[in-house]
Amino acid sequence: MKHEWYLSFHGGAEKEARNNIHVYSADGLELRKALEVHHLPPHVNLRELRGFTFGPDGNLYVVNAYYEYSEVLLFKGTPNATGQHEFMRVFVKGDKVRNPAVLHPFNVVFGPDGNLFLTSQDTNVVSRFFGPGSTAGLPGDPMPLPDAIKGTKMVSPGTFIPSAEHFVDGLNTVRKALFGRDGRLYVADRDADCVKIYDGKSGRYLSRIAAAGKPIHLLFRGHDELYIGCGGADSVLKYSLQNATTAVFI
Q1: pLDDT value for 236
Q2: 186 φ, ψ to 5°?
Q3: Taking phi first (over 0 means left), then psi (-120 to 50 degrees means alpha), and beta for anything else, what does residue 214 get?
Q4: Measuring CA to CA, how many Å separate 134 from each of 129, 147, 158, 192?
Q5: Alpha carbon distance 125, 104 (integer Å)
Q6: Distance CA 125, CA 118 (A)
Q7: pLDDT tens track for 65-113
Q8: HSE of 117 in the Cβ direction (CA atoms, 13 Å)?
Q9: Residue 147: helix, strand or coil by DSSP?
Q10: Residue 28 contacts by C-beta under 8 Å, 6 or more apart in sequence?
Q11: What b/e readout covers 42-71, taking b as 16+ CB neighbours within 10 angstroms?
């Protein structure tokens, strides 16, 4: 099996060559750009790509983060003859009325139930949308509010975790979110210097992991090791879920 790195560089308008996912070999050789751009429709403009993931349907979901776009783009999971993924459609689109919480999105992840979760930097919200295989709602549409925040005022459609502005256990400055094998949702709250943990079904706040240094990126290794990239401390922490201990890894 061939292994390759897929990397995004958060490129802006002044760095147009970076506005793609770049593919490297396992030993670091630059190979190609992952996204086929010559046949994109006029309304799709790659700008400040952030998080991306392969969904439960095998297709590639990419965060287009620039303010006026603020969307999740869907590309074919199987590359074409040139090794590139072809555009399918806009799966989630930020909108002042329909999806106001989707603004300057950062990270996309799928839950154990196959639904899509999206973090947005400018609203500090984790939003939830029906996944590609959903029969309960139209794929890409906002899902109902979870049990933990039903009845909460001032939350947008599809909100799963609100901002701290509207909810006592909400998020201050959200960055990456991911699910552990325990079914819980782990969310990097940068300015709160912690990783907040929520129940993956109800959205109920459970606990937090102290991570001084402004946590941004998260990665699980195995069942119980969580790596936390801290931009403010230029370090990577390793947290053991089994022992509830944190140590500097890099």
Answers
A1: 96
A2: -105, 125
A3: left
A4: 10, 19, 15, 34
A5: 11
A6: 8
A7: 988 899 999 999 999 999 999 999 999 999 998 999 999 999 999 999 9
A8: 28
A9: helix
A10: 5
A11: eeeebbbbbbbbebeeebbbbbbbbeebbb
Q: Identify the H or E element spanning 84.
A: none
In the three-class reduction of DSSP (H, G, I as helix; E, B as strand; rest coil), residue 23 is classed as strand
Question: pTM score > 0.85 for this model?
Answer: yes
Query: What CA–CA distance (Å, rounded) separates 129 from 118?
Result: 8
Q: Is the dihedral of CA 37, 38, 44, 47 positive or negative?
A: positive
The type of residue at 196 is K
**Residue 19 gets which letter from DSSP?**
S
Six token digits for residue 111: 């839950």
Assess contact for 178 and 194: CB atoms under 8 A. no
Residues with Cβ within 8 Å of residue 42, at least 6 apart in sequence? none
Alpha-carbon distance of 91 to 45, in angstroms, equals 14
* Coil, helix or strand at residue 145: coil
106 in Cβ contact with 174 (< 8 Å): yes
User: Residue 38: CB partners within 8 Å, gap ≥ 6?
Assistant: none
What dihedral do alpha carbons 220, 222, 223, 228 form, nearest 10°?
A: -20
